[in-house]
Amino acid sequence: MRTRIRRDDVEAYVMIAPFFAFFTLFVMVPIIVNFVNSFTNYDLGRTRDFIGFRNYVRLFTDGDFLRSVLNTLVYAAFSVIPLMVLGFIAAVSVYGVSRVLYMARALYIFPYVTSMVAVSMIWLYMYEPTTGIFNKILVFLGFKPLTWLFDEGLALPCLIIMNIWKNIGYVMIIYLAGLAGIPESLYEAGKVDGASRFAMLFKITVPLVSPISFFIFVTTCIESFKTFEQVRIMTGGGPINSTTTIVHQIYMRAFGEYKMGYASAMSIVLLIIIFGITLLNMRLGEEREGKSW
C-alpha cells in the first residue's frame, strides 16, 4: 500500500511539473529579474549600474507617475461597482431556459470576447468629435457636440464607460454560475410564505451569491489596475496625462524613453499595490464570512 501511495505521489508530481516549470520560467524568474533591475539604471544598453533606492525615491516626486496612480484609482473605483451591479442585473434578466434568453446572453458576451484593440477602435470612432455617433445624437437632440476624448474632464469617464460596456458579459457569466447553484426549493418556500420576487431577490439571491460577488470584486479590481490597451489606442494618456495609468507609464518609460530600471521600479510598485488590495479584500472576505457564521 505504501509503495502504491508513493507511486501515485510521483505520478502526481510528474503531471504538475510542466505547470511549475512554466510558472517558474515565465513568472517567477521575470519578477526576480525585474526586481533586481529596479535598483539599477538599466537602459537597454550597456549601462546597468547599481543605484540603490534612487528609482523608488524618484517615483514619489514624479508628477506623471503620481497622476497615473490617481487616474488608476479613479478608473478602478468607478468601474468595479457599476460592473457588479449591471452584471448582476443582466444575469438575473437572462437567467432561464429559452431561445430568447440564450440570444440575449450571446449579445452580452459578444463585447467581452471581442479583443480590446477592436473595441477601442470602434469606440474611438464613436467618440470622434465631427463624425462620431455620440455627437450626432447630441446634435439631433438639440445639444452642442462635445470633444469627448480631447476634453481633460471627459476623457477618463469615456474610457470607464467603454470598459463597463465591454466587461458586463464577464460579470454576467460568473453570476449566472452562482444563480444556477441556488436551490429552487428556497424560491418555492418564499412563494409559499407570500414573498414577492423583489423580496426574494434581496432576501435569497443576493445573500447566496455574495461569495461570487466577492470573487468578481477582487478580479475586476485587479483588471482595472492593469488597464493599458484602451489608453494606448484611444488617448495615448492625454490630454495632459488625464487618462494615463500606471501600466501606461511603465510602457512609456520602458519603451519610449528606454529607462528600464525606472520602469521596473514602477512595475514593482504596481505589484505591491495589487498584492495589497488582494490581501485587503481577502481579509474583508474572511471577516464577512466569520460574521455570517
| CATH architectural name | Orthogonal Bundle
What is the CATH homology-level superfamily?
A: MetI-like
CA radius of gyration is: 24 Å
**Gap between N and C termini:** 40 Å
Strand content: under 5%
Task: Write a concise synopsis of the structure shown.
The chain is mainly alpha-helical and 293 residues long.
Give a quick set of tags describing it:
mainly alpha; MetI-like fold; globular; 293 residues
Polypeptide structure, described:
Helices cover 76% and strands 0% of the residues. With 293 residues, the protein is an all-alpha fold. The chain has a single domain, classed as MetI-like fold, CATH 1.10.3720. The two termini are 40 Å apart.
Question: Strands, helices and their partners?
Answer:
Layout: H1 2-37, H2 54-59, H3 63-94, H4 99-113, H5 116-126, H6 133-140, H7 155-180, H8 184-192, H9 197-208, H10 210-225, H11 229-235, H12 246-256, H13 260-292
Helix pairs in contact: 1-13, 3-4, 3-7, 3-10, 4-7, 5-11, 10-13, 12-13
